[in-house]
Design a protein that fits this description.
Oligomer: single chain
Structural class: alpha+beta
Largest sheet: 4 strands, antiparallel
Radius of gyration: 15 Å
Shape: globular
Strand content: 25-35%
Strand order of the largest sheet: 1-2-3-4
């Protein structure tokens, strides 16, 4: 019998990093995050998404590293390093677990783009 390698289950912050990257690079619409955000997070995405802060010319951005830390039960403070070509950016976000046990994004920030002279 041939063994199949299973992809390890992603942690909630890793799944959200992928979803946020898709929205902030212009690959998915902001409304795809409806129901996955709480508080100001959706408004933050609405403001950020049109500027596609994580889009890069002629290359697809990827998550190099994603880490999360639990300051208290039901909360994850996470950050991700995003690479696209020779550009490297950072994204930080906060997840909170709702009473229905679903994780929702409560805040998101992206490092500003550096302007080249």
């Amino acid at each position: 019998m041939i063994s199949q390698r299973r992809r390890p289950s992603l942690q909630p912050h890793e799944r959200f990093a992928e979803q946020l990257l898709a929205v902030l690079s212009g690959l998915r619409p902001v409304h795809s995050m409806l129901g996955r955000t709480i508080g100001e997070a959706y408004d933050q995405l609405v403001r950020l998404a049109p500027t596609t802060p994580l889009r890069a010319r002629n290359t697809t951005p990827v998550i190099r590293t994603c880490r999360g830390f639990h300051p208290c039960p039901g909360v994850v403070e996470a950050w991700a390093v995003i690479a696209a070509g020779n550009q490297v950016r950072a994204m930080a976000f906060r997840l909170e677990q709702s009473p229905d046990l679903r994780w929702r994004c409560a805040a998101v920030e992206v490092t500003p783009r550096r302007h080249q002279n």
